[in-house]
Peptide ABC transporter substrate-binding protein (Levilactobacillus fuyuanensis), 536 residues
Amino acid sequence: MKKLVGLSFGLLAIAALAGCGTTQAKSSDDKALNVTMVGNPATANPAISGDSNSSSIISQTQEGLYTLNENGKVVAGVAEKVVKPTKNGTVYTFKIKKAAKWANGDPVTAQDFVTSFQWQINPKSKSQVANKLKFLKNYDAVQAGKKAVSSLGVKALDKSTLQLTLSKAQPWLPDILATSEYPMKTDLFKKYGSNYGTSSTKTMSEGAYKLVGWSGTTDSWSYVKNTHYWNAKNVKINKVAVQVVKDPGTSASLFKSGKVQETTLSGQYIKQNANNKELKTTLNSSMRFLEFNDKKTVTHNTKVRQAFSYVIDRNALTKNVLQDGSAAAKSLIPYGDGDDPTTGKDFSEYVGNLLSYNPKKATQLWNQAKQELGIKSASLELLTADTDEQKHAAQYLQQQAQKYMPGLKLTIKSMPLAQQIAKGSAGNFDIDLDGWNTGWRDPSDFLQMADGTSPVNFTKWDNAHYTNLLKKIDDTSTYTTQQRWDLMKEADKYVTQQAGLVPLYQQAKAHLVSNQVGGLKYTMMTDAQYKYAYWK
């Protein structure tokens, strides 16, 4: 049945994309670049976006104060230049380019950034990425509802001058401004409020491309060149046609038939294309992990969480099940996420492998947990997204857990990513196969996923010792860079030992890119930007 459904969807996708190429192109600029996405974006609102699909749609159509060049280096975006902070690294003052325009020709203003940043941190928005701006002055008070959002450390000094005031220095702020923080068109936000970004007609682009034909539920849409973009003359491709394709077999077929020029692969299809020169594989700055609902009796038990960790052979999971280049997790922090300030050695090398496969230990811990809980059996549900990658990982986890944890029935519930995130955020799950992708190289972004005060801690695991460690890590005015590094190592070891989260694997991203297309480059932190693409 699954094969038939996948085949039907694949034929529909091929037919839909085939239609994109029926018109004779007048020039290479007019020829559409056809690409795929693995799932449906939840929102086009940059202030609340918390999933990778939404981040992708936003990054292709919006531009922040800074942006990344084709090699992944931070450069000026709509700001005139990359600025140096004043007052001990706590005040940033930006001038916005006069040429920076929204897709309707209106100028991008400092107030558009104020509108976006204030909504991101406003508790009413329930933004999953609010804490990316946690170093802004008065962040905690605004998030707690104790101060008005107008007191936040973001001000429009005039129409084109924006000032950010931090409570303490944040050395990685340029990365965040280049990859995560974008403006919102103020008058449209006033019109649509919380519905801003729910469709392409209820948002507006100021980046290289306009978002066209996206309703929030559609499986296809376009990025159309924004002629008002300040750097439009260097955008070589006028239209990018996007199709949601969840099945990797369909993705491979679409690429092979020439219907798409860029697509994502997973599992066996990566292995099948290992010798294909058009395959680009890169380890991602992303970690998959299991979240256990701390508000539910069984999953609150530490031994239950630890047992799940011990039943997972992470090397077998990545090499035999996923087969997509992903790397077995050694802790909560992926490889490449930070370097020792003194030696330059990678963070993951310092903490070492904190995770091991020990099914006997898992059974022992599970039996002890059942005794503590006064139960002989338990039924739990594992929540996943309906992607090929997550389905295969979930099936492996189900098999291992039920084999070595007697009396456990583990049911898999797969759904679209946006629904999974909504259920996770609402705490409506037992176990959630979730993940996090960072936009800057600092382990604290992953560590905060288990912080009891963090809005993205769906587990609601609230450990006083761990939270105190995170407070120290965030206190850049008290602790030196080296002291922060040592505190982060301690926090990583602690959360892994306590199984506050159970790390699984560092994701790899594998793309097939047509040899007819140039300019598409991938780094650990970023996917390719279509504004740099060109037809060869």
Remarks:
- The radius of gyration is 23 Å.
- Residues 134 and 140 are 7 Å apart (CA to CA).
- DSSP finds 18 helices and 18 strands in the chain.
